[in-house]
Design goal:
Layout: H1 2-8, E1 15-16, E2 19-20, H2 24-29, E3 32-35, E4 42-45, E5 54-59, E6 62-67, H3 78-91, H4 108-118, H5 122-133, E7 137-141, H6 154-161, E8 178-183, E9 188-192, H7 199-213, E10 230-231, H8 238-257, E11 258-265, H9 271-275, H10 280-296, E12 302-307, E13 316-320, H11 324-333, H12 340-362, H13 368-380, H14 392-397, E14 402-404, E15 415-422, H15 430-450
Parallel strand pairs: 5-7, 7-8, 12-14
Antiparallel strand pairs: 1-2, 3-4, 5-6, 6-10, 8-9, 11-15, 12-13
């Protein structure tokens, strides 16, 4: 039981390059949420104080609480939980309910205003508190239409935002740290609240769930003594109802504007760059930059997220992927005057620089965080902004047009790339970038094979 291992501090410590990582994020992952505030949100962690024993289940845009521990502290079985979920599905058929969960998609300042109005009612306050204190939210979704367009997948769209108010966007409470989404058609995934937890700890949880699914322990258990799931009730005033309608319009607008595409790349995997003593991550970073250059004929500021968990309470850092070395490589790749051996040397040099930048970032030895911290400090304390922050070169260097991250996954035998942009942004064409990246990866593989290092180190 993942929750028990967190509470008992028996969760195996994770390591990176032989060094232990901070595990504190796991203690904040469950029974936590963000609460809207006037200027800033508050992160609230209930696990240590009250240690809740219930989850929230969202079904048909309605919310229920389900006790997942017995009075003696033992967890309910999978069979018992299944019975509880069936009870919820059978009792949530009414369609004239107010979509309260959609309010969590509002701009934070607006949500703060209506949150305070919502919880003025004692019944509403009790319902909101039950959701906020729950271990997690389990969203039982309606099946969405399947799309068969190339690079299009409905699953990540459904998990990310629910597909709009016509489908499942109101079947969420986006302020919760963890929401597990399960569709009628078997679609499944989860969303995390990035303010509380990062991707790598979530993937450890995902790996644990995946491994547990391979060895299910379904057994008939007594259900007579199970307390019935409790529906959470909300009293909606006219102004809250207006806010709900506003939320619906905003969600549908953003859902329609979001261009999310998936490339399942099965030409080759990490074994190819590793066979040439090249970091797969750095190899892909250079491929992304080359693909961008092929489209726009110019380089851009690009960064890759890095885990800072070598430090206590470490979160995320920024690896500056674009460098003079990467620029030299991408500019040379399609130059017919350049020999393949020179292109490979430039690739290897760019990769060395990227790996050096990565090592410096995860050890807290780079400048981006320092510059950002000074800038934020000046803003918060009303200190005149130092002149360096008006320098165009600094602004260009830190105006990232490509934001990238990668997480390790087990149980997959291909590489999957997920691209997100806005359809209203005419400068970005996600489909073109995907097509170009796919071709670029194949071209870079050919370069490695054509310039294969011989025993003496020459090509």
């Amino acid at each position: 039981d993942f929750k028990t291992m967190i509470e008992d501090e028996t969760l195996p410590v994770q390591y990176m390059r032989g060094e232990p990582l901070c595990m504190m994020q796991y203690f904040r992952a469950l029974s936590s949420c963000r609460v809207p505030g006037q200027k800033t949100d508050s992160l609230v962690f209930h696990a240590k104080n009250s240690n809740p024993r219930h989850i929230t289940v969202a079904q048909n845009s309605q919310f229920f609480t389900v006790e997942v521990y017995h009075s003696d502290g033992t967890p309910v079985t999978a069979d018992q939980l299944c019975v509880q979920l069936e009870r919820i599905c059978n009792s949530s058929l009414e369609t004239n309910t107010e979509h309260v969960g959609i309010l969590t998609t509002l701009h934070r300042d607006t949500w703060y205003k209506y949150y305070n109005k919502l919880v003025q009612d004692p019944s509403n306050k009790k319902s909101v508190s039950a959701i906020e204190r729950s271990i997690c939210v389990l969203c039982l979704d309606k099946a969405m239409p399947r799309t068969y367009e190339k690079y299009s997948r409905f699953e990540p769209v459904q998990v990310l935002h629910g597909g709009g108010t016509q489908w499942n966007s109101a079947n969420r409470w986006f302020d919760k740290s963890l929401q597990f989404i399960v569709g009628e058609d078997g679609t499944c995934g989860f969303t995390m609240l990035h303010a509380i937890i990062d991707g790598t700890p979530c993937m450890a949880l995902s790996d644990y769930i995946t491994s547990s699914m391979k060895k299910p322990q379904m057994m008939e258990s007594p259900v007579a003594l199970l307390p019935m799931p409790q529906k959470l009730h909300f009293n909606i005033t006219p102004d809250i109802k207006t806010a709900i309608e506003e939320s619906k319009q905003n969600v549908d607008k953003h859902a329609q504007d979001l261009d999310l595409r998936v490339l399942v790349f099965n030409h080759f995997g990490k074994q190819i760059p590793k066979a040439h003593q090249i970091s797969p991550d750095a190899f892909i970073q250079m491929a992304i930059q080359l693909a961008y250059y092929r489209i726009h004929q110019q380089c851009c500021a690009s960064y890759e997220a890095a885990s800072m968990r070598l430090f206590r309470k470490g979160r995320l850092g920024v690896i500056l992927s674009t460098s003079s070395a990467s620029a030299a490589f991408v500019k040379s790749f399609d130059d017919p005057k350049k020999q393949n051996s020179e292109k490979r040397n430039l690739l290897e040099n760019a990769i060395k620089v990227h790996m050096w930048n990565t090592n410096m970032e995860i050890r807290g030895r780079t400048t981006f965080g320092h510059f950002l911290g000074l800038k934020v400090q000046a803003i918060e304390n009303n200190i005149p902004m130092p002149d360096i922050y008006t320098d165009t070169s600094l602004n260009k260097a830190f105006n990232f047009l490509l934001s990238t991250s990668q997480v390790r996954m087990i149980n997959y035998f291909f590489i999957q790339y997920l691209f997100i942009s806005w359809k209203s942004c005419k400068e970005n064409n996600v489909v073109r970038l995907i097509q170009t990246l796919e071709d670029t990866l194949v071209d870079m593989k050919m370069l490695l094979e054509e310039t294969k290092l011989e025993p003496g180190g020459s090509t």
